[in-house]
Design goal:
35 residues; mainly alpha; 2 helices
Length: 35
């Protein structure tokens, strides 16, 4: 998950996620699976 990978357990949005790059977000969105 993007938050866990970038923020390493920090609460809320960490500095690594501000601002989030569109290409980075797209990489994580493509991994989403719906059941």
């Amino acid at each position: 998950d993007m938050h866990a990978d970038l923020c390493h357990g920090a609460f809320g949005l960490c500095e690594a996620m501000k601002p989030t790059k569109g290409t980075e977000l797209l990489k994580y969105l493509r991994k989403v699976e719906f059941k």
